[in-house]
Target: Luciferase-like monooxygenase
Amino acid sequence: MPAHIANIKAQAARAGRAVRTVINPVIVSRDTEREANAYADAISRNAIKGAFGGFDSDAHAWRGRLDASHKQGLGLGGNIEIVGTPEQVVEQLAALKKAGIDGVQLGFYDFLPDLEYFGERILPLLKQAGLRL
Model:
C-alpha cells in the first residue's frame, strides 16, 4: 500500500495537485477476538436478523470476494475489513496511517450499535495512542 499511495501522490504532484488518501474500512469489533470473528462470520453468512431496522444484510453481495484486502474473504464491504478486539482495531488503523493513509471513512454493519461500541471502546484507545482519524 505505501508504494501505491506514493504513486498516487506523485501523479497528482506532476499534475500540480496535492491529494490526500482516504480509505473506507468496515469495522467489526467485539471484546474478544473470538466474538469479533463470530460476529463477522455471521454477517457474511447473512445470519444476523433485525439489523438495519429489520432488513437483512447486503453482505451476500460481497460474498466470495477473495482478494487479499478482505479478511478471510468475508466480503463485508468497504475497501478493507478491520476485524478484532478494540486493541486490534487500533493497531490496524495505526498500520493504515503508517502506510500513508490520510483518513478513514468508517463503516459498520449495524451502524448505530456498532458506532456506539466504537465510541465507547475504540475511540478512547485511539486518543491514548495519539491517533487522529
